[in-house]
Amino acid sequence: MDPQAAASKRVRVLSVDGGGIRGIIPAVILGPLETRLRNVLWRAFDLIAGTSTGGIIALGIGTACKDGGPYSPAELVNLYVQYGPAIFKKSFLTPLKELFGPKYSPAALEAVLQKFFGDTEFRAALKPLLISSYDLRGQLPFFFKSHKIETNPSYNWKLREIARATSAAPTYFPPIHLTAGHESYALVDGGVFVNNPSMAAYAEACNLYPGAEEVIVVSVGTGNRQDKITYASARKWGLLGWAKQIVPVLMDSVSEGVDYELYALPRCRYYRLQVEDLGQAANAMDNITPENLANLQAVAKRYVSSVSALLDTICKVIQ
Questions:
Q1: pLDDT tens-place string over residues 58-85
Q2: Could you tell me the pTM of the whole model?
Q3: C-alpha pair distances (Å), 294 with each of 77, 82, 137
């Protein structure tokens, strides 16, 4: 832990949402934020948190996983654009396959995570990291905490294992089995309970820095889905009907609940960077058509232009 941060009265937190291929959006937004801060992101924040695709981003910008340093936001955008089509590759059998098991094989995702993170371990964190997952075996939230390694070395998993666990979205990818000492875990995407990890990050910051008088949380979303499910369409849904909607419904609802809570906390200064209208970009977490990949980048760039003053304010507060 940074001694200077521990003694500071203000703690700075960066949090990144889940959302599959829509991780392009926060990756694009973080680029101009980093430029305006005139500093790499991990140096500007005291804690970095992420869920699912946001967990992968947090690991990328918050660890020495590339030649002794972090990835840049632009390199993470390239990860999605270049490798997203392989991770979410569909075939004519996909609609049938998802009725009986995960929609996608984890092989392509694991190959990409191996390529980007190699065998780098969690101890390579440059700042305290909080990456969320959910343990099916224990029926409990599970947080990967880099600052826990000092007292419990068994929590020093490889980054690719953590990235795989936080992004194992139910119905999309199978769980991952991890162990720590004598403990055994069946882990899935943390988005099932904390798709926007800002509240969890706020709580962790309070624990890490108990002397802080103010916690500044910068939360970056993956775009508001705005599915607008009608009563007429949902009232007769059974198991199969809900199976296609339950994951996005859960993830969106918990994200918006966090917004409400953090804006109300007296010790918290909360900044939410969220694209409210995806425009031509698709809501789906796995739409990897060239048109959608381009649309996701375009909508994020338009959003950055529209919130220029807010970004300036955030940088002034952070610095």
A1: 999 999 999 999 999 999 999 999 999 9
A2: 0.93
A3: 11, 12, 39
